[in-house]
C-alpha cells in the first residue's frame, strides 16, 4: 500500500455558514399560527420557513384571509416572473416610491416597457465598460481608507465604497467630496425609510396611510430636489464626452425618438441608486465573511487577482481573467441573495404545479429558499464556489435567481457584478481578511439581506515580494 496516500491530508470540510433557525413544522393553519408567522417575518423575512419548505416545491397557504402559494419549482417560478398575469403587489412599492418615483424599478405595463427599451443602450457591455474607471476609483478609495487599519467594520466600509461607486458612475461625484450631500441623503433613506414598516403590511395599496410616511417624503423629496439641480446643471454645461450614466440618460430616446423628461431622468437615477447601492454593498459583505472563514479559497482568489491586478482592467472582457472571483460572487449570491423574496399578485385565474390560483392570490418566490432547496442543489448549505466554475453561464442554472428572471430581470446585473469584482479585487490585492470574533453572523432579511450584527474584520497587509 502507498503510505503517502495514508499520510495525505484529507480535504477540508466544506464551510457551512450559519442561517436562521429552520422550524420543524409550519406555523400556519390557525389564527395563532398566522400571528406567529407575522411575528417571525417582522423580525426576519426568511425566519418563518420550516423543514418542509426545503423539501416541497409548492406550498399553498392562507395568510390573514388572502390565499397564497410559495413556488420553489424553478420552471414554475420563471413562468410566473415572465407572465403578464402576475404583477408586483401594489403596496410593495410603498417604501421606495418617494425616492424613485415612476422609474423603471417600480413602473408597470406600457410605461415599464417603454422605459426598459429606452434604457437598454445605457447598460450594454460597452456602456458598462465605460464606467470601469469609476469602479476602479471607488476600489482604490476603499483601499486608501483602510490603509494602516487592522480592525475594521467592513459592512460600513463596503456601504461607503458601493455608494461611492454608484455616485461616481451616476454623476461623476465622489461620495466623500462633491457628492457628500447626495451620499448622506441616499444612506439616510436606504438605511431607514426604505425598509418595510407596520403600515406597509396593513395597508391595502400604495397610497394608504401615507400621511404617516413623513420621513420617507421628507428625505425622498430632498434627494429628488438635489438630483433635479444636477440635471439642470448638466444641461446647462454638458460634458464634452460621455462620462457617466447621467450623460447617457440625457442622450436616450424612446421608440418615437423623443427624449425623456427631466422628471423621468430623475426617477431613473433614484431607481439606479436603490437597485445598485445596498444590494452590492451586501454582496461584498457576505463575500468577505465567507472568504474570512475559508482562507484556502481566499488565498486562491488573491493569487488570481494578483496575477491580473485590478488596475489592468480596461474592459469587461478583462474580468474573464478572474473566473474564481466570478464563481465566488455567484456562490455568495446563492447563499445570500440580495433580494431574498419576490412577490407577485395574480390578475386572473391560473394553475401552478397542479394548484389552483385565484385572482388576487399572492405568489411568493423566495431565492433564499430556492437557492438552499434540498431537491435542487447538492450540499445546498455549503459554500462551494466550484459549482459555478464549470457552468458556461450561471444564468443557465435554472434554480439560480439572484437577479430575478423574465422581462423584469435586473437590467443592471452586469453593472453590479463589475462593480463588486473591482472593489473586492482592490481589497484582496492588499490585505488578508479575517474575523475578530467567532460569533455567528445570521442573515436578516428586509429590503435586502443583511447581517444581524456587523462584525469586526482583521486586515493583515500582504507582504509584497521583492523583485
UniProtKB/TrEMBL annotation:
<feature type="compositionally biased region" description="Pro residues">
    <location>
        <begin position="9"/>
        <end position="20"/>
    </location>
</feature>
<comment type="similarity">
    <text>Belongs to the cytochrome P450 family.</text>
</comment>
<keyword id="KW-0503">Monooxygenase</keyword>
<dbReference type="GO" id="GO:0004497">
    <property type="term" value="F:monooxygenase activity"/>
</dbReference>
<feature type="binding site" description="axial binding residue">
    <location>
        <position position="410"/>
    </location>
    <ligand>
        <name>heme</name>
    </ligand>
</feature>
<dbReference type="InterPro" id="IPR002401">
    <property type="entry name" value="Cyt_P450_E_grp-I"/>
</dbReference>
<dbReference type="InterPro" id="IPR001128">
    <property type="entry name" value="Cyt_P450"/>
</dbReference>
<dbReference type="GO" id="GO:0016705">
    <property type="term" value="F:oxidoreductase activity, acting on paired donors, with incorporation or reduction of molecular oxygen"/>
</dbReference>
<dbReference type="InterPro" id="IPR017972">
    <property type="entry name" value="Cyt_P450_CS"/>
</dbReference>
<dbReference type="GO" id="GO:0005506">
    <property type="term" value="F:iron ion binding"/>
</dbReference>
<dbReference type="InterPro" id="IPR036396">
    <property type="entry name" value="Cyt_P450_sf"/>
</dbReference>
<dbReference type="InterPro" id="IPR050121">
    <property type="entry name" value="Cytochrome_P450_monoxygenase"/>
</dbReference>
<dbReference type="Pfam" id="PF00067">
    <property type="entry name" value="p450"/>
</dbReference>
<keyword id="KW-0408">Iron</keyword>
<keyword id="KW-0349">Heme</keyword>
<protein>
    <submittedName>
        <fullName>Cytochrome P450</fullName>
    </submittedName>
</protein>
<dbReference type="GO" id="GO:0020037">
    <property type="term" value="F:heme binding"/>
</dbReference>
<keyword id="KW-0560">Oxidoreductase</keyword>
<feature type="region of interest" description="Disordered">
    <location>
        <begin position="1"/>
        <end position="20"/>
    </location>
</feature>
<keyword id="KW-0479">Metal-binding</keyword>
Amino acid at each position: 500500500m502507498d503510505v503517502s496516500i495514508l499520510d495525505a491530508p484529507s480535504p477540508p470540510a466544506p464551510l457551512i455558514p450559519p442561517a436562521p433557525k429552520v422550524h420543524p413544522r409550519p406555523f400556519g393553519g390557525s389564527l395563532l399560527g398566522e400571528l406567529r408567522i407575522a411575528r417571525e417575518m417582522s423580525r426576519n423575512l426568511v425566519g418563518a420557513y420550516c423543514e418542509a419548505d426545503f423539501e416541497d416545491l409548492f406550498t399553498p397557504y392562507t395568510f390573514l384571509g388572502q390565499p397564497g402559494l410559495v413556488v420553489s419549482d424553478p420552471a414554475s417560478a420563471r413562468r410566473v416572473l415572465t407572465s403578464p398575469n402576475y404583477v408586483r403587489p401594489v403596496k410593495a412599492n410603498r417604501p421606495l416610491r418617494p425616492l424613485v418615483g415612476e422609474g423603471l424599478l417600480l413602473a408597470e405595463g406600457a410605461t415599464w416597457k417603454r422605459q426598459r427599451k429606452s434604457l437598454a443602450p445605457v447598460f450594454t457591455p460597452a456602456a458598462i465598460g465605460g464606467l470601469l474607471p469609476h469602479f476602479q476609483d471607488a476600489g482604490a478609495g476603499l483601499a486608501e481608507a483602510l490603509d494602516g487599519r487592522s480592525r475594521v467594520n467592513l459592512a460600513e466600509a463596503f456601504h461607503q465604497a458601493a455608494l461611492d461607486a454608484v455616485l461616481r458612475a451616476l454623476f461623476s461625484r465622489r461620495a466623500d467630496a462633491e457628492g457628500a450631500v447626495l451620499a448622506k441623503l441616499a444612506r439616510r433613506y436606504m438605511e431607514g425609510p426604505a425598509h418595510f414598516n407596520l403600515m406597509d403590511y396593513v395597508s391595502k395599496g400604495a397610497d394608504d396611510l401615507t400621511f404617516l410616511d413623513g420621513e420617507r417624503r421628507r428625505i425622498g423629496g430632498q434627494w429628488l430636489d438635489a438630483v433635479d439641480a444636477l440635471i439642470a446643471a448638466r444641461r446647462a454645461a454638458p460634458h464634452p464626452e460621455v462620462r457617466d450614466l447621467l450623460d447617457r440618460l440625457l442622450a436616450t430616446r424612446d421608440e418615437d425618438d423623443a427624449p425623456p423628461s427631466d422628471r423621468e431622468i430623475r426617477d431613473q437615477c433614484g431607481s439606479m441608486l436603490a437597485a445598485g447601492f445596498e444590494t452590492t454593498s451586501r454582496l461584498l459583505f457576505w463575500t468577505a465573511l465567507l472568504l474570512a472563514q475559508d482562507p484556502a479559497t481566499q488565498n486562491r482568489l488573491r493569487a488570481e487577482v494578483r496575477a491580473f491586478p485590478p488596475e489592468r482592467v480596461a474592459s469587461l472582457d478583462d474580468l474573464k481573467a478572474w473566473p474564481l472571483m466570478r464563481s465566488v460572487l455567484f456562490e455568495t449570491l446563492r447563499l445570500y441573495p440580495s433580494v431574498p423574496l419576490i412577490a407577485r399578485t395574480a390578475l386572473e385565474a391560473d394553475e401552478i404545479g397542479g394548484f389552483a390560483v385565484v385572482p388576487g392570490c399572492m405568489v411568493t418566490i423566495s431565492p433564499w429558499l430556492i437557492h438552499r432547496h434540498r431537491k435542487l442543489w447538492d450540499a445546498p448549505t455549503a459554500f462551494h464556489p466550484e459549482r459555478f466554475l464549470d457552468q458556461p453561464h450561471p444564468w443557465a442554472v435554472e434554480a439560480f435567481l439572484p437577479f430575478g428572471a423574465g422581462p423584469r430581470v435586473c437590467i443592471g446585473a452586469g453593472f453590479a457584478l463589475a462593480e463588486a469584482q473591482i472593489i473586492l479585487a482592490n481589497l484582496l490585492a492588499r490585505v488578508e481578511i479575517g474575523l475578530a470574533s467567532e460569533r455567528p453572523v445570521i442573515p436578516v432579511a428586509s429590503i435586502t439581506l443583511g447581517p444581524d450584527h456587523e462584525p469586526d474584520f482583521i486586515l493583515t497587509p500582504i507582504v509584497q515580494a521583492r523583485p
